[in-house]
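Our preliminary data section would be incomplete without showing what the modeling component actually yields. Below, a chain of 460 amino acids is followed by its predicted structure, encoded as tokens that our downstream tools consume directly.
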Amino acid sequence: MVRAVITWPHGGRRVSLSFCNTGWSDRIEMSLLEGSSMIFQAICDLPPGYHQYKFLVDGLWRFDDQQLYVQDEYGGINNVIFVKTPELISLSLHGEAFTPTMDIDNIRHVQDRASSSGLTYSEPELHLLDNGIEISRRRLCMHLSSHTIYELIPNSSKVFAFDVEVTVKYAFHAMYKQGLAIVPIWDENLQRISGMLTASDLILILIQLHKNLAVLPDEQLEAHTISAWKAGKSQLYGKANGASQLMFQRPLIQADPDESLKDVALRILQNKISMVPVIHSLDGSSPQLLHMACLSGILKYVCRHFRNRLDYVPLLQQPVGIFPLGTWISGGGARDRLLALHSSESLSCALNILIEAQVSSIPIVDDRGFLINVYSKSDITSLLKDDTYARIQLDQTTLSQALELVDGHRYQTCTRSDPLYVVMERLSDPAVRRLIVVEAGTRLVEGIITLSDVFNFIFG
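Predicted structure:
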């Protein structure tokens, strides 16, 4: 037997180690390295040869993407270590235990030896078999198709709506106090929900007021009703082309409680919106607003159903870094390049990007590309605190100053090695609409994964 030291450098509350040759049943508890809050370590006595292993981190199976890893015959991904025979240990070690390492030279050595043994290893790109992905997607879609929005509606809850004649200032102050980023609009004359008031509306209002006046007067928002703003927005942006015209002129998008989760999720994705009002209509009576359906609520329902059935959907146990999922700084099969800003950039610059690029948030990074914070569309309501919007100039206010008005950090992170299920669980929190992907062990921004990304991937 040869003594080997294996580490898990990505943190956690409780970490244990399991090997393939024991059927993954034995658990070796790992201990925090002295002086570290992230690095766990275990010392194992292993026979010479190749060993597949993985980590159980806070109840979830993980692998370390910074070490050599392999895909087994069941589609699972495990780390692999090659333990040299005692005869290969240099005498200059003076009896010290050999500690296998996984640097680049050793990886090449393992691959050469693996080839001669009939084993196959790959770095760093691994892919599930196409049929495994399709089977998992089909099972997730079947679940979404067989359940309705009605099942998401809680037994007791509040749904806010604004009368169309309420002033935008009152409405946005209410949204800020209630922590809402989007609210339905009720038209008394039409006796129905006629539209939605969103954080994007407030951004557009502030941008327009800023273009006309150096400092924003409080009276502009005080006198403007929601109906007046919606009419003005239609005239102002109604002549836009393509997607912009659709965004500013489309009718209300809604859902019926008997529609399937899949149909509603697809409608949200296709229209690039964050949520839809669930409205129940009976002949001869006013329509009833029952719920606000969003992707996080649908995802939470999915996670709850498959939490103890992950083997049924192998896709959920795989690391997100191997999928064409999300938007990345570079590589990773990204559809687009990730937009990021420095904290010294102006608030005006960030707001224009949020509207023009139709993204919901922008990572804020330092000169090294390390994550500092995130500025999101919903953060614009923080300018309503003490009527700050009336005393600032958007192009002279830095993102650093704007973020001082926002309470705490409202973002979460993940790494490329996090299983898809872990990412889904975090995104099912209504307060989390995206995860910033950071390099394991650092805060270097690598990409971003949003709710829409996850559903687009599921639907293929």
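The chain is about 30% helix and 20% strand. The first strand starts at residue 2 and ends at 8. Preliminary results of this kind motivate Aim 1 of the renewal.
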